[in-house]
Write a structure and sequence with these properties.
The complex is a heterodimer.
Chain A: H1 3-6, H2 12-17, H3 21-45, H4 50-58, H5 60-93, H6 99-107, H7 114-125, H8 130-137, H9 146-170, H10 174-182, H11 187-216, H12 219-224, H13 231-241, H14 244-268
Chain B: E1 2-11, E2 14-23, E3 28-32, H1 39-47, E4 54-59, E5 62-63, E6 74-77, H2 89-94, H3 104-117, H4 133-145, E7 151-155, H5 163-180, E8 183-188, H6 191-197, E9 200-205, E10 208-213, H7 215-220, H8 225-231, E11 235-243, E12 252-258, E13 261-267, E14 271-277, E15 283-285, E16 295-307, E17 310-316, E18 320-326, H9 327-332, E19 340-345, E20 351-352
Parallel strand pairs in B: 3-8, 3-9, 6-7, 7-8
Antiparallel strand pairs in B: 1-2, 1-4, 4-5, 9-10, 11-12, 11-14, 12-13, 14-20, 15-19, 16-17, 16-19, 17-18
Classes of the chains: A mainly alpha, B alpha+beta.
């Protein structure tokens, strides 16, 4: 029953003079949340004086760490795209036994606490594990090496990529593909000429989001590979060993990267999903 | 030639069953059925997108049931046209030519030829966004026809355009059909379309073909009350047939009684039946007509519906009936709501199903 229904019929004046309390309440709750998100970020941005930014940009260790972060995040995203985009297409277009199960598995990392993911990856990819042993034969070591960073990033970011790409494929009307088939194209050509161009923006947006997730990862990486330090680990390290002032310039630089990515995703996303 | 041989197609939860239907080479066939009767899925089966549960699809004498869509030489136009949103008008039309044997210049020539046939040359450089319904339909048709398919499948091609455009497009479509010599199968829910376009028509009811034939035949002699109602042949009355005189002869003179109305009819069997009264067979007059017609009863005009030169007069004769008269004679007779008239119909004009 809506509040209006509960009014006695024949009391229209009560409706006219009623203060829209529900709207006031909703607006207040919303405003609190917005302040809670924007407030801390603004507080941090106020520290971005020319002096502190100059200090950050002269800090070779910080710059190397950010370069490492961006490079490993890019690698994780490319690997994720290579393995995940075909899977996303299958999930979007084909119905097969176990499809829902695979869909659930791919989403699973979202609910796993990141240090737990780090521990699990450590056990799975460590030099003395079966899988880690195989990689070790090819000279690839995960724990305390760069591949460990990539593995941690991949684990936490790939759900974003697969589900985003899957939705991008689903948004392409299968009838467009059917029309293309009747116009003479075999399925692979239809994929290249119709599906991919139409889903491309959505997939790219998903990849950028996954990349941003990889850049911001801390929990899994800190367990797998503390050194060399990605930016998030470096910030944590300086905060705990030196103190807050030492962590701020690094935090500012990483925030700038994140905001840039955020703007890029907003541009890439189709208008109706913004 | 399109030949469907005992085709069963799964449509959501139900089956289209035992669909057998043939459109001769160069012919124009129509499948009519209510919305949601699986017409689109049936067309997709002919095109090869959906495998049939049972039955075969033959195109030009060849069994193509197991052939991929791209190898069937079929053009397909969906109800909502489905132009490629990432391509402009020219590239949409050209899409099916890129794989073909034509050089780039020849491809563009073919695009121009179709554009001029359909009157859309001015649109070629345009984006497909912002095209009108009629323009979109023409582009979709040109795209389907560009690779010279021998078969054209049309899914309610006029559903999304306004009536005036629909009228024009129908005429163009018939002309294009002749020009391109393409065997066409169209699905529609509009029997009027069948009458204007089709050489052969199949009426779908409850997952099966209820009636198959030339459109004018189906219209004049619907074989069931469903078909008669669905295609809008006329008023369908439910009643009882009884012999006027005992005997075994057939057909025989009989009475058809429906509520307060009693008609003299020519029947082939007794018992429960539906009578189809076509609007053009009901004559209206202010005074009883003289002559041999014996089915004559008083009625009151409810409403006069003018459709150009023809007017449909809805009357109440104890049962609602609809008569068609020329708009001129409707005016001459002074037909208007509340006017008392006499309805006359020949026994031989009442079609029993």
């Amino acid at each position: 029953m809506t509040p209006k229904d509960s009014l006695p019929s024949g009391a229209p004046s009560a409706i006219r003079t009623r203060v829209p309390w529900s709207r006031v309440a909703l607006a207040t709750l919303g405003a609190l949340l917005v302040v809670f998100i924007v407030g801390p970020l603004l507080r941090l941005l106020f520290l971005a004086t020319p002096a502190s930014m100059g200090e950050a940009l002269r800090d070779q260790e910080l710059l190397a760490s950010i370069a490492l972060t961006l490079g490993t995040a890019t690698a994780a995203t490319l690997i994720g795209a290579l393995l995940g985009v075909p899977l996303a297409y299958l999930l979007a277009r084909r119905s097969f036994r176990g499809r829902r199960f695979i869909e659930a598995v791919v989403e699973l990392p979202v609910v796993i606490p990141h240090p737990v993911a780090g521990i699990a990856l450590l056990l799975f990819l460590g030099r003395h594990s079966a899988v880690g042993g195989i990689f070790a034969k090819f000279g690839i070591e995960f724990v305390s090496h760069i591949p460990g960073i990539v593995a941690g990033m991949l684990f936490v970011s790939v759900p974003i990529l697969v589900s985003g790409a899957r939705e991008a494929f689903r948004s392409v009307d299968p009838r467009l593909e059917r029309v293309a088939r009747t116009l003479g194209d075999p399925p692979a050509t239809v994929f290249r000429r119709v599906t991919l161009p139409l889903a491309g923006r959505g997939i790219l947006a998903a990849a950028v989001l996954a990349w941003a997730r990889a850049v911001s990862e801390f929990g899994a990486i800190v367990i797998l590979t503390y050194n060399p330090q990605v930016a998030s680990v470096l910030i944590y390290d300086r905060f705990t060993t030196i103190g807050l002032p030492a962590a701020v310039p690094a935090a500012l630089l990483l925030l700038a990267v994140a905001l840039g990515v955020f703007a890029l995703v907003r541009v890439l996303q189709p208008a109706e999903r913004r | 030639m399109i030949r469907l041989d005992g085709l069963s197609v799964r449509v959501g939860d139900f089956l289209l069953q035992d669909i057998s239907f043939e459109v001769p080479s160069g012919g124009y066939g129509l499948l009519i059925g209510p919305s949601g009767s699986g017409k689109t899925t049936l067309l997709e089966t002919v095109a090869g997108h959906v495998p049939p549960v049972t039955g075969r699809v033959h195109l030009h004498g060849e069994d193509v049931t197991d052939l991929a869509p791209e190898r069937r030489g079929v053009g397909f136009v969906y109800q909502n046209y489905h132009l490629f949103p990432h391509l402009d008008v020219r590239d949409n039309i050209r899409y099916g030519l890129l794989r073909g044997p034509l050089q780039a210049a020849e491809q563009l020539e073919r695009v121009r030829e179709l554009a001029s046939l359909l009157g859309i040359e001015a649109l070629l450089g345009r984006s497909i966004h912002g095209l009108s319904g009629g323009e979109t339909q023409r582009v979709a048709l040109a795209r389907a026809l560009a690779p010279r398919p021998s078969i054209l499948l049309l899914d309610e091609p006029f559903a999304a355009v306004d009536p005036a455009t629909r009228h024009m497009l129908r005429r163009e479509l018939r002309a294009i059909h002749t020009h391109e010599k393409v065997t066409t199968l169209q699905v529609t829910h509009d029997f009027d379309e069948a009458l204007r376009l089709g050489d052969v028509v199949a009426v779908l009811a409850e997952g099966r073909i209820a009636q198959l034939g030339r459109p004018d035949e189906v219209f004049r002699f619907p074989n069931s009350a469903f078909v008669a109602r669905f295609i809008g042949t006329g008023t369908v009355l439910r009643g009882e047939v009884t012999r006027q005189t005992a005997g075994e002869d057939s057909p025989f003179s009989a009475w058809f009684e429906s509520g307060p109305l009693r008609f003299e009819v020519v029947a082939e069997r007794e018992g429960a039946a539906h009578a189809v009264l076509r609007p053009e067979d009901l004559m209206l007059s202010r005074e009883p007509l003289t002559g041999s017609a014996r089915n004559r009863f008083p009625a009151v005009v409810n409403r006069v519906e003018r459709v150009g030169p023809v007017s449909y007069v809805h009357v109440d004769a104890g049962r609602p009936l609809t008569a068609a008269v020329t708009t001129a004679s409707a005016a001459e007779l002074g037909l208007d709501a509340g006017v008392e008239v006499v309805v006359t119909v020949k026994a031989t004009a009442i079609h029993l199903v």
